[in-house]
Structure formats: C-alpha cells, structure tokens
Amino acid sequence: MGYPDQRFDVNLSILFTELPLLERPAAAAAAGFTAVELWWPWIETPTPPQAELDALKKALDDAGTHLVGLNFYAGQLPGPDRGALSVPGEESDRFRANIEVAADFAASVGCTALNALYGNRVEGADPQVQDALALENLVLAARAADRVGAILLVEALNKPESPLYPLVSAPAAIEVVDRVNAATGLGNAKFLLDLYHLSMNGEDLSQVIKAYAAKTGHVQIADNPGRGAPGTGSLPLERLLDELKDAGYAGRVGLEYKPGDRPSAEAFGWLPETARADR
C-alpha cells in the first residue's frame, strides 16, 4: 500500500506551466510519468484550428505520454471562470460547440475521461434556469463521451476559492451525476473526487470515500493548506488514497498541485521514480 501502489498522472495545466504547452508532455516523461491530463488548453476558443489539435497529439505521441483526462471548454481557466455549461447565452453556446471537438480529440489520443466543469452562478440569472441548462448540456456531453468510449466527470470545487460555483460539496456533485445518468440511461457520468477541494470545504474525507468511491471516475490530489505537493501541508493523502483503493477505486490519481517556487520537475520528490509510470 502507499504511494507506490497507486496509478498517477500529471496535470499539465498546473504543473510544467513554465514551459510552452507542446513541451510539457516531454518534460513529464523526463520526470518519469507516462500518463497526463489537461484542462482545456485553448481558453480563448472552444474550436481551435485542427492544426493545433494535431500538434498537441503529436507532442503527446512523441513524448510517449498518454492523455488520460481532458476538460471540456471551461471559459477563462485559470482565471475567473469555473466552467461554461450552466452560463446562459454565449458561454453555453461555446460549450456546446466544444463538445464534439473535445470528444473527437479525446478519441484520437485514447483519452477516456472528459471533465465538464459546471460553471459559476451568474448575477441576475435564475439558479433553476442555470441548472436546467446545465442538465441539457451535460446530457449532450455524456452522449458524446459515450460515443468515444469515455466517461463524463462532474467535479466539486471549494467554496473559499470558487464562491460562485454551486457544486461545493461531494453530495452536490453526486446529485448532478445521478441526474445526468437518469436522463441518459448511459451510466457514464461519474464523480471527480478532488481531495484538496473537499478538504477546503471541511468535508469528512474518509466518509466521502466510503459513500462515493463506487461513483468516482477520477481522483485528484494536492495538499492543504497551500495546494502544494504531498507533504507540504497536513492532509494524510497516502492514507486517504489507500482508503480509496480499499473501497474499490482502481483508477488513476491526478497530480493537480502547484510546484511552488521551483521548477515543476523538482516537485516530485515525495514519489519514488519507480512509481511514476502508468501501469
């Protein structure tokens, strides 16, 4: 048990960001990782030119890295936005325009997990209207994910850092997961369990794991406080990951933490090099 018994991937949208996007897969590979994930890399557009999609695929292939998780278009992220699918008007339209683009790219690189960030509450918009729009868009996204053999992830964030985001607890995200699965009948909507976000919300992490491991499609970690590497804060991450495994979770663990004031390549000292490659 412990860290060497887990399957890790590196989030290239928060680690190795000192490098251009197309250089990050090779940097992750040089650090010993073979699996990576990404937020939607083109924050300005849901529909980048095919040449840019092809270039990212080539960078992943050339590095020998496997993209195992990809966000749908989520607005300005990093930045003030937390998704687009529940935001009426242009942002919802942009999310819909992205659905097939993201799904097709995922299929082209063998990525089987697509994360759909819910989006912030909008001043002047009825929350019930936003939730109805969200369900419509999540149903479309779930069907597109299913078409390419992928799962759809729904993530809870934390209220201190994302005060306008409505899914700030595990039960709130699970409720959306259940609603999507009921609407599609596909069963491919899953919970993205981020131990950092849930800890920031003050949730009982062991209880969340017991209650929702069976509905969890992906796990992400960072230590708290600080959102740094394991060991920089006070979360018992090694024990919690063991609890997840004991509860039946057999998926990957995304490293979604800040490297601090050092190059990203130096932020993995907590993890033996022999435990970094995907298995």
Question: Can you tell me about this structure?
Answer:
The chain is an alpha/beta fold and 279 residues long. It is built from 8 helices and 8 strands. Strands 1-2-3-4-5-6-7-8 form an 8-stranded parallel β-barrel, surrounded by 4 helices. It starts with 7 loop residues before the first strand and ends in a 24-residue tail after the last strand.
Q: Largest sheet, described in full?
A: 8 strands, parallel, barrel
Can you list the strand order of the major beta sheet?
1-2-3-4-5-6-7-8
Beta-strand proportion:
5-15%
Structural class: alpha/beta
Counted by DSSP, the helix tally is: 8
Number of strands: 8
Give average pLDDT, whole number. 98
Low-confidence stretches: none
Q: Over all CA atoms, what is the radius of gyration?
A: 17 Å
Distance between the termini: 15 Å
What overall geometry do the principal axes of the alpha carbons give? globular
The arrangement of helices and strands along the chain is EHEHEHEHEHEHHEHE
Q: Helicity, in percent?
A: 25-40%
